[in-house]
């Protein structure tokens, strides 16, 4: 198996360090030490830690398995639920110590960096668009109520998910995930006759 390029190793190390330490606390030396590369080599690949953060966000987005949301071989609400279940399982696997990097950077650094704010916004927009597309398919298939607004609902689901991650991390418990799935799938996305308690 071929060894990863130095640039790829730096990006992977940055993703790990940004998740563990946050943007501000993860220094270039921390990242290059974690990558096993000389600090001087960093600037052969990136202009700044900020430019690396943008690439790390893109890498993070690819790891969210967003393409699964567009897999039309799977029923729309099933694939949407599986998407959030995958994200939940990743959070539990890491012991509730990592949130969403888009959300983390949005809270920590976006007010002080237009470059990172733009990357976070683009990540959320892409994610929202894929969820909205899935919801539009579900509406067309009659799986959700016909007046459901896919775009507004997708934005709401992502906002609810980000809040759920914060609560799960604070509690070190999956209880917040249970509430998210119940409200999202058994109430918000249920057809009128299928809603819990209806």
Secondary-structure topology with pairs:
Blueprint: H1 6-21, H2 28-35, H3 39-45, H4 49-63, H5 76-93, H6 101-108, H7 114-140, H8 150-171, H9 175-188
Folded structure, characterized:
The model has no long low-confidence stretch (mean pLDDT 92). α7 packs across α8 (150-171) and α8 (150-171) runs antiparallel to α9. The chain is elongated and about 60 Å long. It has 2 domains: 6-56, Homeodomain-like (Arc Repressor Mutant, subunit A), CATH 1.10.10; 66-194, Tetracycline Repressor, domain 2. The chain is built from 9 helices and no strands. The protein has 198 residues and is mostly helical.
Secondary structure class reads: mainly alpha
Categorize the overall geometry. Answer: elongated
**Counting H and I runs of at least 4 residues, what is the number of helices?**
9
Low-confidence stretches: none
Q: Share of helix among residues?
A: 55-70%
CATH architecture of the largest domain: Orthogonal Bundle
The whole-angstrom Rg is 19 Å
Number of DSSP-assigned strands: 0
The biggest beta sheet reads:
none
CATH homologous superfamily annotation of the largest domain: Tetracycline Repressor, domain 2
Element string (H = helix, E = strand): HHHHHHHHH
- Under CATH at level 1, the class of the largest domain stands as Mainly Alpha
Nearest-integer average pLDDT = 92
CATH topology of the largest domain: Tetracycline Repressor, domain 2
Number of domains: 2
Distance between the termini: 56 Å
Beta-strand portion reads under 5%
